Amino acid sequence: MVRARDTYMEQPDGRVRVVIEGVKPEIDSGRFPAKSVVGEKVEIEADIFTDGHDAITAVLLYRKEGHSKWTETPMELVNNDRWEGSFLATELGHYLYTVTAWVDRFKSWRQDFQKRVEAGQEDLNINLLTGANLIAGASGQASKADSRTMQEWVRTLESAQVSQLEKIELATSEKVAKLMDKYSDRRLAVTYPRELQILVDRERALFSTWYEMFPRSCANEPGRHGTFKDCEARLPYISEMGFDLLYFPPIHPIGRTLRKGKNNAIKATADAPGTPWAIGAEEGGHKAIHPQLGTLGDFHHLVKKAKEYGIEIALDIAFQCSPDHPYVKEHPEWFVLRPDGTIQYAENPPKKYQDIYPLNFESEHWRELWEELKSVFLFWIEQGVCIFRVDNPHTKPFCFWEWCIAEVKREYPDIVFFAEAFTRPKVMHQLAKLGFTQSYTYFTWRNTKQELTQYLTELTQSEMREFYRPNFWPNTPDILTEYLQTGGRPAFMARLVLAATLAASYGIYGPAYELCVNTPREHGSEEYLNSEKYEIKHWDINRADSLKDFIASVNKIRRENPALQSNQNLWFHAVDNEELICYSKHTDDLSNIIMIVVNLNPRNTQSGWVHLPLEPWGLDAQQPYQVHDLLSGARHLWHGADNFIELNPGKCPAHIFRVQKSIRGE
Amino acid sequence: MVRARDTYMEQPDGRVRVVIEGVKPEIDSGRFPAKSVVGEKVEIEADIFTDGHDAITAVLLYRKEGHSKWTETPMELVNNDRWEGSFLATELGHYLYTVTAWVDRFKSWRQDFQKRVEAGQEDLNINLLTGANLIAGASGQASKADSRTMQEWVRTLESAQVSQLEKIELATSEKVAKLMDKYSDRRLAVTYPRELQILVDRERALFSTWYEMFPRSCANEPGRHGTFKDCEARLPYISEMGFDLLYFPPIHPIGRTLRKGKNNAIKATADAPGTPWAIGAEEGGHKAIHPQLGTLGDFHHLVKKAKEYGIEIALDIAFQCSPDHPYVKEHPEWFVLRPDGTIQYAENPPKKYQDIYPLNFESEHWRELWEELKSVFLFWIEQGVCIFRVDNPHTKPFCFWEWCIAEVKREYPDIVFFAEAFTRPKVMHQLAKLGFTQSYTYFTWRNTKQELTQYLTELTQSEMREFYRPNFWPNTPDILTEYLQTGGRPAFMARLVLAATLAASYGIYGPAYELCVNTPREHGSEEYLNSEKYEIKHWDINRADSLKDFIASVNKIRRENPALQSNQNLWFHAVDNEELICYSKHTDDLSNIIMIVVNLNPRNTQSGWVHLPLEPWGLDAQQPYQVHDLLSGARHLWHGADNFIELNPGKCPAHIFRVQKSIRGE
After folding, report:
1. Which of A183, A424, B233, B547 could form an SS bridge with B514, CB 3.0 to 4.6 Å?
2. Nearest 5°: phi and psi at B86?
3. Are strands A190-191 and A93-103 parallel, antiparallel or unpaired?
4. Within 13 Å and on the Cβ side, how many CA atoms surround B403?
5. Which strands form B625-629's sheet, in the order they lie side by side?
6. What is the rounded distance in angstroms from the CA atom of residue B154 to the CA atom of residue B161?
7. What is the mean pLDDT of residues B282-307?
8. Which residues are B45's β-sheet partners?
9. Closest to A662 measured CA to CA, from A614, A623, A630, A633
10. d(CA A161, CA B456)
11. Are B464 and B441 in contact (CB under 8 A)?
12. pLDDT the model gives residue B122
């Protein structure tokens, strides 16, 4: 056990006067890294101060893990002793950073001296000599050329022949300040006692558009088991809708013992295909492919074909076994044995899941189990998969995930792990902190303006913004929400726009989504009736009422507008109608401002006045400005901060406006 | 430099499944201790959770620094994975604490088993055997007697002769749970990686009532320099007002060189007494007494006499020197030398303070300087002083204070250090974190309901509550606020009640306060006209309009009502008038509830409806309850949460009600 006090750098010298604290980001005292993506500006803040009124110089130090040399960049005082610095994350992997600061004697002297001059103090000779002494001291540390320059300055400041006015001009000049900065005396500098970390992922870790689909339901003709070849045929459709990730439920052989039937029936009919999450059969386990989907070669072909469409294949990894999984025979020590010698099936008393055997992470052979599970990821990475959606990670130990993800990313830093945990907040946060790249969220059940505003404020403004990358899903194969069940097509449109514009990453489970499938198994249930979790479906993706064109428009808007590709820039705006929600995102340079209004009531037209922040957007409140509805194509000239909005959900429940200065002639 | 990751306890075993984080209090990752006082309950919280649904047992570990053995006390789940535990601080000094938790197999088994029983599952034999195995395992760790008992239980649970009903009763019995708790398997326990600290002070560190007075102005007859003997004569007066701390500006010899005159005049008249903060003359420095005040013997006598009145003497320690201070000759190396060989006087350019030499903490001889300054505190401690008000600590290095206070308190843990820093928030916070027992605050300038509510909420609800002990001063010799200048006697009464009831510690600078002295040196200045900082005053403390009786009442109320002796229990209540502020404090057991209403407008009568939290106070909303105005003595029976208040500032601008159940007959 380590006493925090002992780890704090002992002050070796009582003259070290600067305090550095409150560094941000710093997750759990540096226990976990904050997150960024390649090309993003990493912003670091800290409280930095000293006693008295002396001036401070502070620098941010950063380096790529593995490099021993720090790069240094200046920090600036923002206000209230808060300083800020930043660097650009250019490579995948971990960066380290910390902060160094010191009392800057020359800067202090200069700042005081300028006040004396401004106050018209007359005899400044002693003060000029003090300045000269500081320059003389620094010249001892300088390069030959610089030293000569500085000694010349000292001679001027000490000369009886030079007028005080000339000396003042020299002493307060920028050239002197610049050279004194270069040789600032750091002997009494203090460095923050912790090196903190930023984990830099690839861009898709932040901005991604997911489409979930059951491969076995992809056959063109009803009644046939879909294959990877059928999935290939579906690629143009998925690509046209604008998705860049195609994610499959488990593709492994499905267990036969105690197989579940249609609608999760305990007794399955002989021809029941089973659920893909009952993983493992005599054909193999987590590294095998369900024979009816095709071969490993077919899978490779699909991955390659998808890449041509700019689509990556994501796999669902669910660490659980059917009773027929090869592990059961080969490694019974990885399961819990009951007193009668049988293997313990999954339970959440009083519920029993006899068709699923959970792995026992408290096994004495946990090391071998960990290695094997890691090898599952490595196997699929070798098959071309770079993105994993992990099923129920919160039912496996946190320390396993931390180890496993770190191990995989050490070799393959571009891998994305998406945590499918819908559970208590602190558990979900922990999974994100320890390494999951993206996380499911409670968005699925946040429907009202108040719920959305509160939840999104937490995600984008609290410390969560540093480590929790939300991925918004309006539906999943497990979740058909009441809002979708009862709101009809407008509800599907509204929730899609919300997911796609509130979060940089979102996804849908299709074709159920674009076809607005909304019948639950029973009243009060969030399960789909006749869910394809238990049966093979045939979807008519060409139905005239499909949302596919609408989805394509929304995804095109996301691709073309960088403001929508980040989370932290979200800003809610006032609307005087509780059923209308209004928010915006903009790029740092204001070159791209997107403002969204959604009617949350799928049944009735709603109208109201939105109030917009013209000045922060760089718009002249006295001039008209243009709002261009990227969904409808309509362009309007608006005047002033307050504008009237009306949305008929039967037509389209949302506006996605691009806001810009009015250009003459438009 | 220490990498935080390296200091985090490495998981030696991948089966350790519990996570402990978010421990509170934890100041700056454990860099600083939180604060408590003897007799206070120290409450510790933490987020504790594991994967899946297993049950956790968590304990709080604590020990007095220097003791090697932890004491253990159970923690309880509050909600949302937040756990809580507490211990009683009984001794002065540092306590250490941390948290240990583990997945409790038997508790998990028992909780699942009870669900099975409740759900009416029939064949529980296997589950009973699993329970029996857990008991058998624990019996191996048990005492002989306990082991025998447990083996007997195992036999019962395994016996074919015992009915399932009997077995269920045994397995779920409290006696089994209790013994299994005692021998709970901690092999996979995790301990929070940091040992955190609580600094326990004496009670007066939290609850104290200060009276500041210039000893030289204490003579009974005008024109004479007051002495410690005169101070003794003033003790009954101070005691009757209810103060338990009498605090003096510096009592050391006053410099003659460049002595300041009346109203801080640069040229002093020959008989000017000088300011006590120009410390040091040929008679001595920080360890000497100004001859006109008396001898060290007189001081000892005063300290002893004060103690008889329950009053402690607090000294102002100002580490700065007049040009005549012995240090200047004996230790010129402790000062900054100017290029012309003279010693640098204090400056805040363009202002100059030629009568004050600041100490140079960047001296190469800083170690000797530190030791000497520490010895000043030790000297006065040996003379019986236990409380120091430290002048301008924010102009001396933080690391000096941290060292000095720790050194002094190691030997004398009952010493109180009160930081006189009116500066930027983070600097004030740092001084409190590093060891100052109490701190001045911005209360002095917080006048409106919004200002007071916001500031007090920060002090009592943010992390500041853990380390920042506020001491509220409505005036000081340096600060006569505009509110007091313009508000007359009602303003002095209102500010006194606010200070005395919002904060557990408060003080006034008298007799200027009780005599409602409110003339500034000039318009816009917060300096007193003819301030006794620069001259000797004679106060007529028996003036009929003195607030002394009012102050005595308020301080008596503070003494008699434990609710007013703590800060964290402050609670604001709604009043429908911006000029009225209403708040309460109550003891944990609700035996003492004090509710205060103050009219913040010193000119006009204000009235309004207050809204009170009857249910949280344990009052029946259907029954009348009693409010007893401890200031006026009036008792009222109130009904319901909303009650009408009217306060005429000309009479008394405040109510201090004791709220209690109505007792029959009153």
Report:
1. B547
2. -155, 160
3. antiparallel
4. 22
5. B571-573, B580-586, B593-599, B654-661, B625-629, B635-638
6. 13
7. 98
8. B24, B84
9. A623
10. 61
11. no
12. 86
Helices A174-182 and A105-118, axial angle in degrees (round to 10): 160
| B230 within 8 A of B218, measured Cβ to Cβ | yes
CB-CB under 8 Å, B395 with A51: yes
Q: Do B395 and A21 touch (CB under 8 A)?
A: no
- How many residues can be counted in chain A? 666
Q: What is the pLDDT of residue A10?
A: 47
Closest-CA residue to A473 (of A445, A452, A448): A445
Residue A233 structure tokens = 């045929």
Which of A129, A193, A427 is opposite residue B2, by nearest beta carbon?
Answer: A193
Q: What is the pLDDT of residues A189-219, one digit of tens each?
A: 999 999 999 999 999 999 999 999 999 999 9
Helix, strand, or coil (residue B432): helix
Find the angle CA(A500)-CA(A501)-CA(A504) to the nearest 5 degrees.
75
Question: Which of A281, A383, A363, A376 lies closest to A326, judged by CA?
Answer: A281
Answer positive or negative: Cα dihedral of B648, B650, B654, B655.
negative
Q: Is the ipTM of this complex over 0.90?
A: yes
- pLDDT tens digits along A567-616: 999 999 999 999 999 999 999 999 999 999 999 999 999 999 999 999 99
Which tokens sit at B641? 């949460």
How many residue pairs bridge chain A and chain B with CB atoms within 8 Å of each other? Answer: 192
The count of C-alpha atoms lying within 13 angstroms of the C-alpha of B214, restricted to the half-sphere facing its C-beta, is: 26
Other CB atoms within 10 A of residue A160 CB:
5
Lowest-confidence region among A417-421, A506-510, B347-351: B347-351
- DSSP string covering B268-315: PPTT----TTSB-BTTBSTTS--GGG--HHHHHHHHHHHHHTT-EEEE
**The two three-digit tokens of residue A543, written as one number:** 């139905």
Give pLDDT tens digits for B515-564.
Answer: 999 999 999 999 999 999 999 999 999 999 999 999 999 999 999 999 99
Q: Is the pLDDT of residue A76 over 90?
A: yes
Spatial CB neighbours of A154, under 8 Å, sequence gap ≥ 6: A132, A135, A136, A139
What would the two tokens of residue B70 be?
């932890």
Q: Give yes or no: A146 in active site.
A: no
Q: Is B420 a catalytic residue?
A: yes
pLDDT over 70 (residue B665): no
Q: Do B194 and A2 touch (CB under 8 A)?
A: yes
How far apart CA B248 and CA B533 sit, in angstroms, is 12
Chain B residues whose CB is inside 8 A of the A339 CB are 126, 129-130, 133
What span, in angstroms and rounded, lies between the C-alpha atoms of A628 and A616? Answer: 19
Task: Quickly count helices (H) and strands (E) in chain A.
Answer: 16, 31
CA dihedral over B370, B376, B379, B384, signed as positive or negative:
negative
CB pair distance less than 8 Å for A8 and B14: no
Residue of A nearest to B23 (CA): A28
% of chain B with per-residue pLDDT over 70: 98
CA distances to A7, B2, B21, B195 from A2, in Å? 8, 12, 15, 7
Q: With bands split at pLDDT 50, 70 and 90, how would you rate the model's confidence at B664?
A: low
Residue A345 carries which DSSP code? P
Which candidate in A6, A7, A68, A195 is best for mutational testing of the B interface (most B CBs within 10 A)? A7
* CA–CA distance, A622 with B29 (Å, rounded to integer): 50
Cis peptide before B474 (omega within 30 of 0): no
User: Could you please report the per-residue DSSP string of A430-449?
Assistant: HHHHHT-SEE--GGGG--SH
Find how far residue A618's CA is from the centre of its chain.
Answer: 27
Residue A468, helix vs strand vs coil: coil
Task: Identify the residue whose tokens are 């209360």.
Answer: B443
pTM of the model: 0.95
